[in-house]
Amino acid sequence: MCGILGYSGDRQASDILLAGLARLEYRGYDSAGIAALDSGTIKIAKNKGRLKVLEDRINAGDKVPGTCGIGHTRWATHGAPSDVNAHPLWSDDMAVVAVHNGIVENYREIREMLAKHGYTFYSQTDTEAAVKLIDYYYKQEKSPLKAITRAIKDIQGSYCFVMLFKDCPNEVWGARKDLPLIAGQGEGESFLASDVSAILQETRQVYYLDNMEIVQLKKGDVRFFDGEGYATIKEITEVTWDSNAAEKGGFDHFMMKEMYEQARAVKDTFGAVYHSGKIELTEHGLTDEAIKDISQIYIIACGSAYHAGAVAQYVIEDLAGIPVRIDTASEFRYRNMPMDKKALAVIISQSGETADTLAAMRRAKENGIKTLAIVNVVGSTIAREADSVFYTMAGPEIAVATTKAYSAQLIACYAIALKFAHVRGKIDDAECERLIAEIQKLPEKIDDILDAKDVLQEIAKKFTRSKNAFYLGRNIDYAVAMEGSLKMKEISYLHSEAIAAGEMKHGPISLIEKGMLVAGIMTQKELCKKTASNMLESKSRGGYLLIVAMKGCDALKDEADFVFTIPETDEHFAASLAVIPLQLLGYYVAVARKLDVDKPRNLAKSVTVE
Ligand code: F6R
Fold first, then answer.
1. 2 counts as catalytic
2. What pLDDT sits at residue 604?
3. Which residues fall within 8 angstroms of residue 565, CB to CB, at 6 or more apart?
4. Does the active-site annotation cover 63?
């Protein structure tokens, strides 16, 4: 997500903050800001756009003096990129100034509560609600520690806050839940950072904060407290990574780092629409009346986003009983089809800038079709032009091959499917609650699969010299096969095709050769046996059968060459788990082939030309 820094010492904070934020630029951001405390006054400078713009505006820091300060690079989630929404954000009398990573899920409730006590709001951010909540408790408690402990009990979601209190000279405070925060120890000075790479130039002696832990910096003095405000003792760690490895959080590639961010992305994306026990899509233009009125859904996207849409097609049709038509954007934009004015067009895009997707969305709008965009980048063109937007909360994705954005897109689609099913009377309250509980269990299961990655690394070695692969499945498993196959071809350059398993004998089976990878996805119990017979036909022609099966789908457990079992979930959501071993397989084949995993040849992260 965003980049965060804090400093307390004898040097000018702005020097440390600007240099540290520059080391976080690689993550992508849309705004930057710093604040410093000097003789009881906090000065803030922030703007939309590059860090260089900020640096020039404040004359490399001269205009923000002080030896204790905080800094931020923002990746917008709530509120478009703008000067006012950039961090730091402040309380009305500037008693509390803070930067924030993550999402305050209950910011609306907090705003409502604070409004009753006279607070007003100047930004569209969730962060401002949190800053003012801390201020509200600070006014009562007169202690930063007590104010923070009370506020974090109220705040739902994931966060990392770094704060200045106007009346507390030399002090920087931090708190975290589900997002990283690291404290660095120097000689007579100390640091806070969301990412160790930001402070590695300054110190290699760091403390990793635990969940719900609070930290106080006061020059070289670093203190820790638990969520109740009791002092805790932490062990210092020496960072041995070089700065290159540190940017990747110790992983060899951004792609692996981002695969590990999937659980968080899934949780935050669902958390963004799940409030007080209900999925809430009114802000996305989907009131109950609007949902009942929609006659069909067109899903439009490219690449992996299209594959997420392919999963959605099966899930929405099965759960909500509404017809769904899916098209690649490059086809939709030129098709001369009669369009149904009561349809809803769901546009899926990580970047929000893909040229074909944008053109297809404009085409739908010209034809009077309502558009809902599922987008990761706040303020992107598709997000701005769509009638309404459902932001996925994946955070910036650096590896060209998408992983966490795809996983977040799936969750957005599940939320839409469940809401439609419930509002249109296809599932009752109890079934809706059961399915929501299944979605909420996905993050833990995703992490369990990632923890078993070594076995896929071993298997991947078998395919270092392979030329071709097939990925087979039916229904949702076919949609997952498409994404697994794309992951393989785009980063490992191994030619791979996804085939609806029933199509094998209509042609593709003639391509099977001895040792060829034939990956079968089997999560849909009713269809497993059918896919199994297609897989066996491949085996008898020499194929190497690799199965990704959900617990209970053990049709080929004796015949397959290798079976990777994923935890059980409701079959509608199985794609979220089945895709993980396939991402890992593509990754490890690319690594074994010594390829540039994060920047595959001929590909760009954002395809802004036709
Ligand atoms: C594959 C991948 C691409 C994108 C596609 C659409 O790993 O990342 O296939 O999914 O280019 O991009 P967005 O989602 O930005 O519209």
1. yes
2. 81
3. 549, 550, 551
4. no
Residue whose Cα lies nearest atom 3 of ligand 1: it is: 303
Question: Is any atom of ligand 1 closer than 6 Å to the C-beta of 356?
Answer: no
Rg of the chain on CA atoms, in Å: 25
pLDDT at 379 over 90: no
Q: Give me the pLDDT at residue 62, please.
A: 85
Q: Which residue has the tokens 């009942």?
A: 292
Indicate the residue type of 459.
I
Q: Could you tell me the distance, in angstroms and rounded to a whole number, from the CA of residue 358 to the centre of ligand 1?
A: 13
Q: Take atom 9 of ligand 1 and give the residue whose Cα is closest.
A: 303
Query: What is the distance between the terminal CA atoms of the chain, rounded to a whole angstrom?
Result: 29
401: Cβ below 6 Å to ligand 1?
yes
Out of 462, 539, 599, 605, the active site residue is 605
**Mean pLDDT, range 58-63, rounded to an integer:** 86
pLDDT of amino acid 378: 85
Instruction: Name the band, by pLDDT with cuts 50, 70 and 90, for residue 1.
Output: low
Q: Is the CB of 490 under 6 A from ligand 1?
A: yes
Q: List, in order, residues 6 or more apart from 62 with CB less than 8 Å away.
A: 14
Alpha-carbon span 42 to 491, nearest angstrom: 48
pLDDT in tens, 325-337: 999 999 999 999 8
Domains of the chain: 3-240 (3.60.20.10), 244-448 (3.40.50.10490), 452-598 (3.40.50.10490)
Coil vs helix vs strand at 464 = coil
Cβ-contact 404, 259 below 8 angstroms: yes
| Ligand 1 site, residue 302, Cβ cutoff 6 A | yes
Atom of ligand 1 lying closest to residue 301 CA: 16
Q: Does the pLDDT value for residue 512 go beyond 70?
A: yes
